[in-house]
UniProtKB/TrEMBL annotation:
InterPro entries: 3-oxo-5_a-steroid_4-DH_C, SRD5A/TECR. Residues 110-237 form the 3-oxo-5-alpha-steroid 4-dehydrogenase C-terminal domain. Keywords: Differentiation, Membrane, Oxidoreductase, Sexual differentiation, Transmembrane, Transmembrane helix. GO terms for biological process: androgen biosynthetic process; sex differentiation. This is 3-oxo-5alpha-steroid 4-dehydrogenase (NADP(+)). Pfam families: Steroid_dh. Belongs to the steroid 5-alpha reductase family. It comes from the Eukaryota. It comes from Esox lucius. It catalyses: 17beta-hydroxy-5alpha-androstan-3-one + NADP(+) = testosterone + NADPH + H(+); 5alpha-pregnane-3,20-dione + NADP(+) = progesterone + NADPH + H(+). The keyword Phosphoprotein does not apply. It is found in: Microsome membrane.
Length: 308
């Protein structure tokens, strides 16, 4: 098959990258007021309108992020550069797993069709942005394969991917078929963070951004952080009342629980108040050791300055 010569569209790359950055921040601000209605946050009162089964929804919305870069890889002539095609295949590896494995295994709730459509559009644009930039615009020196950023970034990517896949496995096996009761996940990174699957994916794309060291990949990593970071926070907030968290989460995760609540105070998520956060910090004091906190306690209205 004859390949097409495609020139780098630098203006489009810049425009899309900044659109991701601005859009990510805007999406973060939106999520301080409301949840994105998919997964556990789909309304059960009939208001979402048309919905798509979870397996089909995940397959359709993740597929463009795999197909578009693969199409560019197979039909266009890449700009010379060592390792660039390998980095594109690394990007595609994540979406192969999400499209053809995760979507078949997921047990999630149906998603509103407009959410699925929005995700298809985003993944199509992002698939083109990452594939086109890496194949036709990116330039790396001959020393790049030995650069610490490449090695560190790839390590972060594959560790994050392993955490993401393992955490999804834990979540899928929390409940038996037909069960609807909510259960707290345990094991793996869930012993340290309550949104381990989100943490893994954020680590993946931050690693990919470090490995490629480019504006398009950093913009995507930022968008990922802004979109699923607050979702991880909301998951933690809704997992149990503050008064009962002490008995649910292991002590080694208590630091992260308290810090997640404080994160909510700082950016104003939901209805978290400084007084409420102070209660949480006080509840978990036995799990903190020598944590610098004078300014934090001042912000929370506490007078003591002894180390936690």
């Amino acid at each position: 098959m004859r390949r097409i010569i495609m020139e780098c569209n630098e203006n489009l790359i810049q425009y899309l990258s900044w659109w991701f950055i601005i859009g990510g921040v805007a999406y973060l601000l939106r999520q301080t007021r409301t949840h994105t209605p998919y997964g556990r946050y789909v309304s059960s009162d009939g208001t979402p309108g048309w919905t798509c089964p979870a397996k089909l929804a995940w397959f359709l919305q993740e597929l463009p992020s795999f197909l578009v870069p693969v199409f560019l890889l197979l039909t266009t002539v890449p700009k010379p550069g060592l390792g660039k095609e390998m980095l594109v295949w690394t990007f595609c590896l994540h979406y192969f797993q999400r499209t053809f494995i995760y979507s078949l295994l997921t047990r999630g709730r149906p998603s509103p069709c407009y959410i699925v459509f929005s995700a298809v559009v985003f993944c199509s644009v992002n698939g083109f942005l990452q594939g086109h930039y890496m194949l036709h615009c990116a330039t790396y020196s001959d020393e790049w394969p030995s650069d610490i950023r490449l090695g560190t970034g790839l390590l972060m990517f594959f560790v994050g991917m392993a955490i993401n896949i393992h955490s999804d496995h834990i979540l899928r096996n929390l409940r038996k078929s037909g069960e609807v009761v909510y259960k707290i996940p345990k094991g793996g990174m869930f012993e340290y963070v309550s949104g381990a699957n989100f943490f893994g994916e954020i680590l993946e794309w931050c690693g990919y951004a470090v490995a490629t060291w480019s504006l398009p990949t950093f913009s995507f990593a930022l968008f990922t952080l802004c979109s699923i970071g607050p979702r991880a926070y909301h998951h933690h907030r809704n997992s149990a009342p503050l008064s009962s968290q002490q008995s649910i989460f292991p002590c080694r995760r208590d630091k992260m629980c308290a810090l997640e609540v404080l994160y909510g105070v700082i950016i104003g998520l939901e209805d978290v108040h400084p007084e409420e956060a102070a209660i949480v910090v006080g509840r978990y004091e036995k799990c903190f050791t020598r944590l610098p906190h004078a300014h934090l306690l001042s912000y929370l209205g506490r007078s003591d300055s002894s180390p936690l």
